[in-house]
Specification:
The chain is built from 11 helices and 7 strands. It is of the alpha+beta class and 317 residues long. It has a domain at 120-183: Alpha-Beta Plaits (2-Layer Sandwich), CATH 3.30.70.240. Strands 5-6-4-7 form a 4-stranded antiparallel beta sheet. Helix 2 (30-42) crosses helix 10, helix 6 (131-143) runs antiparallel to helix 7 (164-171) and helix 9 crosses helix 11 (269-294). The longest helix is centred in the C-terminal third of the chain and has 26 residues, at 269-294. The protein is globular.
Length: 317
C-alpha cells in the first residue's frame, strides 16, 4: 500500500468498535462486496486496478487474499471482469458488458427518489417469446422496477428514457414484445393500475428492510455527523461508506422506486436515501484519498474520478 502524503486523523475508537461488531455479526460475502466496491469506488476511476491493491483494499473487511483471488477469478469467468498479466502481477478491468451491468444497477443507487409523475404507465406484454426469454425478460425488467401484473405482463410508472428498448435488444426480443403507455380511466368501470401496486410489488417487505437498514447504520452515521467528516481517517470513511452502500444496494435493487403518489405515507425509502446522501457527501473526500493511496492501475496511479461521480446523490462538493 502506498502511504498518503498528508497527515491523517487517527481512527475513531467508537467507529472501530462499530466496524468490528458489524463485520462479526454480518460478514459480507467476498464476491458480493467486490461488486459493490467495483461499482461504487473503482468504476469512477476507469474500472481497472492491479490485483495486489484490491487485496489491500479488502483486508479491513476480513476478506483474505485467497478469497479475493477466487472471487475475481469467478467474476472474470462470468464476464464481469477481464484479466491481463503485467509482469508478475495481474490487472483486472471491467468488461464492456460488465460496465453496462454496473451502470444499470448503480445509476439507481445515487438517483433521488421519484417525486413527479405524469400518471402514465409503461406496459410490456411478452407474447411470441420462449419461456427462457420470458424469464430473462422478467429478471431484467425487475431490475428496472417493473412489477408483474399477470403472467407475461409487466408494468411500471412511466419514466424517461425507457429501459425497454435496451433490454429488448440485449435479449434479442426487439419486435417480439408489445410495449404501450397507458393511464387509468375511471369511466371504464374497471380496477385501476394503481390499485394493482400491492399485488405487483411486495412493498411491505422492502419497507421492513429499509427500516432495519436505518437502525443498523443510524448510530455510526450520527457519530460521523457529530464529529465531522474531517475528524475521521480515510480508511474508516471508506470502510463505513462501503458497508453502507453494500447494504443499501441490496435493499434498493428490490425496490421498484415507485413515485411518491403510489407509496404509503410512512415509506422509509426516502429516509434511507437521505442517510446515504448525507454520509457520502460528508466522507467522499477522505474515502477518495484512501483509494488513491491503496489502488494502482497499469500506469501506477488511478485516474481522477469521472464527472459522473460528482453528480451522485444530487451533487457532491
Amino acid at each position: 500500500m502506498r502511504s498518503a502524503a498528508r497527515s491523517e486523523p487517527p481512527p475513531d475508537p467508537q467507529v472501530h468498535r462499530w466496524i468490528r461488531r458489524e463485520l462479526a455479526s454480518s460478514p459480507p460475502r467476498a464476491s458480493s462486496l467486490i461488486i459493490t466496491v467495483w461499482g461504487d469506488a473503482i468504476a469512477p476511476h476507469g474500472g481497472a486496478v492491479m490485483l495486489a491493491g484490491l487485496i489491500d483494499l479488502l483486508t479491513p473487511f476480513g476478506i483474505n487474499e485467497r478469497l479475493v483471488r477466487t472471487s475475481v477469478f469467478r467474476l472474470a469467468r462470468e464476464r464481469w471482469l477481464s484479466a491481463r498479466p503485467i509482469g508478475r502481477q495481474s490487472l483486472y478491468r471491467l468488461t464492456r458488458d460488465g460496465a453496462r451491468r454496473f451502470e444499470q444497477a448503480y445509476r439507481r443507487i445515487y438517483a433521488p427518489p421519484v417525486e413527479r409523475w405524469d400518471d402514465t404507465w409503461e406496459i410490456v406484454v411478452a407474447n411470441g417469446s420462449t419461456a427462457a426469454q420470458r424469464k430473462a425478460l422478467r429478471l431484467e425488467l425487475g431490475w428496472e422496477g417493473f412489477g408483474t401484473l399477470a403472467p407475461g405482463v409487466y408494468a411500471r410508472p412511466s419514466q424517461a428514457p425507457s429501459a425497454v428498448p435496451r433490454i429488448a435488444a440485449a435479449l434479442g426480443l426487439s419486435g417480439r414484445i408489445v410495449v404501450a403507455r397507458a393511464s387509468d380511466d375511471a369511466t371504464l368501470g374497471a380496477t385501476s393500475l394503481a390499485s394493482a401496486v400491492p399485488r405487483a410489488w411486495d412493498l411491505a417487505e422492502v419497507a421492513a428492510d429499509y427500516r432495519r437498514f436505518l437502525v443498523r447504520f443510524g448510530s455510526v452515521i450520527q457519530r460521523f455527523r457529530r464529529t465531522g467528516g474531517a475528524a475521521h481517517g480515510p480508511g474508516q470513511s471508506f470502510v463505513v461508506r462501503t458497508l453502507l452502500i453494500h447494504a443499501y444496494r441490496r435493499v434498493l435493487l428490490r425496490d421498484p422506486q415507485l413515485p411518491a403518489a403510489l407509496l404509503p405515507l410512512d415509506w422509509p425509502g426516502a429516509a434511507a436515501y437521505a442517510l446515504c446522501r448525507d454520509f457520502y457527501r460528508l466522507t467522499h473526500r477522505a474515502a477518495e484519498r484512501h483509494l488513491v493511496a491503496t489502488l494502482t492501475n497499469e500506469r501506477g496511479v488511478l485516474p481522477p474520478a469521472s464527472s459522473d461521480f460528482y453528480r451522485r446523490f444530487d451533487g457532491l462538493d
